Amino acid sequence: MTQASVPGAASDIHSRARFPGFPSGFPFPLPPAGNLVDSPDGQARLAMRSIPLATLLCTAALACACERATQDPPPAPSAPAASAVSVVSAPRPPPPPPPRPAGPEELALVAPLVPGARLEDFEVREVRAVQGGVLTLVLAKDRATVRLSVALAEDGGPAPPALAGRYAVFYSLRNAQPEDGERLARALARILDKHADVPAPPGLGPFVPSPIPI
To answer: What is the mean pLDDT of the chain?
Structure first.
């Protein structure tokens, strides 16, 4: 059946045709549809005329994509990965040697105190050889520790808690009361008084205060 041509149909199609990016419609008039579909030759000519339309559509879509690409900012460059830096630590100094146990000269001065003996209510854990100018005894009771240091008495030096002739006795505490240090220093001084004729151990000297851990 032949389709009748409708006057003003082309202009009506032109006015209603829309495409993104062209608010007022296509920028060209569309041909009257009724005159092109009446015959096979007209259909072929209609198909041929559709080729520029498809080309225009692809061009417009490509233009929109390019415009969006130019408006979007480029991605920020990623920060370079931090380079690994090898840190070589300085060699640690070797630990100090363990204290040496007392020899015959030191034990003769504090006899009968030896490891395992008792001084007052504390047990003698160690009797150490002279080191740093002092002879050291380590005593303990439960969690309390008292360290007694025997040195040569010196005029003008620090006042010792106890004196025994030419010897001075000092103490340091850990988890113990100062009263424990005072009475144990006096108890050791009484033992030293009994050995006034015993020569001082080699290396024994005046007491120099220093924070020495127990």
So the answer is: 75
